[in-house]
Amino acid sequence: MEVVVNNTTVEFSGLLNEESSVDLIKQGLEQAIKNSAAKKEVNLDFSKVKRANSCGILAWYKILENFDCSFIYVNAPRWLVEQFNISDFLSEKTTVSSIYANFYCPSNDTHEVLLLNIGKEIPILDNYDEFNLVLKNKEGFDLEIDFEPSEYFYFISSNPKRFKKEAA
Amino acid sequence: MKVVCFLPDSIAFQNKLGMLTRSAGVDFQPCKTEEEAKVFAANVKKDRFFLFAEAKKIEFLKEFSVAYPESRIVVILQESLQRVIPNLIDCANIQCFVATNDGEFDARELIMLLKKFESKDYPGLEKHLNFPAVFKEKRVKSQIDKREALKILEEFIIKIGGGSDRFDHYAQRVCDLADELLLNAVFDANPRLKTVDRSAPFELEDHESVRIKWGFDGEVFGLSVADPFGSLSKKTVMQYLDENQKTEHIGKRNSGGLGIKLIFERLHHYIVNVNPGKMTEIVCLMRFEKRFKDFDKRLRSFHYFKVEDSH
User: Which superkingdom is the protein from (chain A) (predicted)?
Assistant: First the structure.
């Protein structure tokens, strides 16, 4: 996995697995924390990480545990959103600002992955059973949500306070 | 071989199961009451027979499992496996959990299941895919082999989809799945490597090597991973799937539990064939639905077979 520090954002790319260098990741995080000075708040961008396996995910979780800092996931890809929803992956010091989600266009049978911001396109709710979002693609055709909102946004509805605090 | 069916609340399922069973030339015995099923079980103790019953009949299944340990039970799921498992985890003779979707069985799954019961021939990916599926296979002995296998697998799926976004996306899901299965086969199954640091490159001896195989028949994609240890128990899989474990602290886990949850998100049928001490083969089947939402919402099936040595 490659790690690039862009001011207070750490951008990862490649694969997060047993081959990922823990030292390289730690160095990137340390640099971004230093850049954030007293604010101690770092953005984590995994949008270019194609896949992750359980070894990589556990290693990542353990790395974060050792830092005394706030982390914000930005541009989180689907595999990472699934982790947010699987267990207590998000801790007291981590939150999420934006996530990617799948959309389907029935008019031309295509799929698109769009970035959704929490608090904007995704309102902070206790329940997403009735949630819907109709967007248009570049050709002006309707895009349908291609995920189950109550499951995909479970990490928000199970702890809306975390995100309300963030939005405030 | 006989099939005993106790689905009093689902006559449509019972009728379809009866039709499929009879068409396979297997004796079919519908039962209207629990007592009827028990009487039948008591009378045919010496024959091989399979009880099909709904997951919600928890007390009946528990009692039947204890009273007739020689029977084999197939549980019909109308809700997710993860919800059902905590109640049925101790029923040792439940062999399969068969999902229904939109009020229907998957006829293909049931016919295959009946064929397997009759022939006692359980392992093999090929039997699950129709002609003209092309199969690819790779032996994995090292970290480099693993990386290479996942690359070929990804290219295979992207190629069959003609570079479409849909197949691109499914390629990632299948590679996630294959990666986890390979980790389990290389590390968790192998007593020599079970506790080693997984971040160090691994090298397997010839007799420890792992085989990955896959194919697509235009409708179903299948993937199998086999190791030469035969140590995966049904209870282990079920414990990892138990929804109650969601509350367990992630940092305290080994990768196994996390991995198996990740695996189940990415398939529709999870089939485990174990020849104890000799071989574990995991067969995963899935349909590349047009909408990912439809892929996700399908209920998952889980089958566990102890392979008999003659096969």
Answer: Bacteria
Instruction: Tell me if the domain spanning B2-119 has CATH number 3.40.50.2300.
Output: yes
Q: Is the pLDDT of residue A74 over 70?
A: yes
- Cα A142–A147–A151 angle (5° rounding)? 145
Strand B221-227, strand B279-286: pairing: antiparallel
Question: Structure pTM?
Answer: 0.92
Percent share of chain A, pLDDT over 70: 97
Mean pLDDT value across chain A: 93
Nearest to A137 by CA among A167, A103, A96, A93: A103
All residues of chain A having their beta carbon less than 8 Å from the beta carbon of residue B164 are 111
- CATH number, span B125-306: 3.30.565.10
* Arithmetic mean of pLDDT, B195-219: 94
> A2-96 in CATH: which number?
3.30.750.24
Query: Domain boundaries in chain B?
Result: 2-119, 125-306
Contact call for A87 and B248, based on CB within 8 A:
yes
Question: What angle (nearest 5°) sits at the alpha carbon of residue A41, between those of residues B262 and A94?
Answer: 30
- E strands within chain A? 2-6, 9-16, 41-52, 70-74, 94-96, 98-105, 110-117, 135-136, 142-145
What is the residue extent of each domain of chain A? 2-96
Closest CA to A44 of A66, A84, A17, A12: A12
Q: Using a CB–CB cutoff of 8 Å, tell me whether B199 touches chain A.
A: yes
